[in-house]
Every structure is written in C-alpha cells, then in structure tokens.
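User: Fold this; tokens only.

Assistant: Input:
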Amino acid sequence: MKTTNLKNYASLCGRVLARAHARTVDPLVLTGYMGKSTAFEDALAEFSVTYADQNERDHAAMLAAVRNGQIEAQME
C-alpha cells in the first residue's frame, strides 16, 4: 500500500472508531454517566500508557523480524 493511501486509511479508521465510541456531546449527560470521581480519567490514562508500551514492543518485534528475514518490508 502506498504511504499516502495508508495515511488516508488510518485517518478514516480513526474517524469511524471515534464516531462509534461517541454516544453524546452533551456535557450534562456525560457528567451524569461518569460521576464526579477521576476513575474514568485514571483508567483512560492507564490504558493509554499500557497501549503505548505494547506498541513499542510490537514495533521492536516487527523490526527484529525484518532484520532476521522472517518478514519482508519494502520502503518507499
């Protein structure tokens, strides 16, 4: 896949995912749903850090696989 096409595809995936997760834009509804604690923010922050760490491990594994000839990569 060409770089431009991959970037466009990733952008569209992100937009679709965001729309699928969005229930409402009404702050009162969101506040009522999530309450006054920081549990949501804490969980989101923890997930984000864990996900970023996993991405780094996955990327390192992919690079190792390319170097070891297990998978083929083509750079434009």
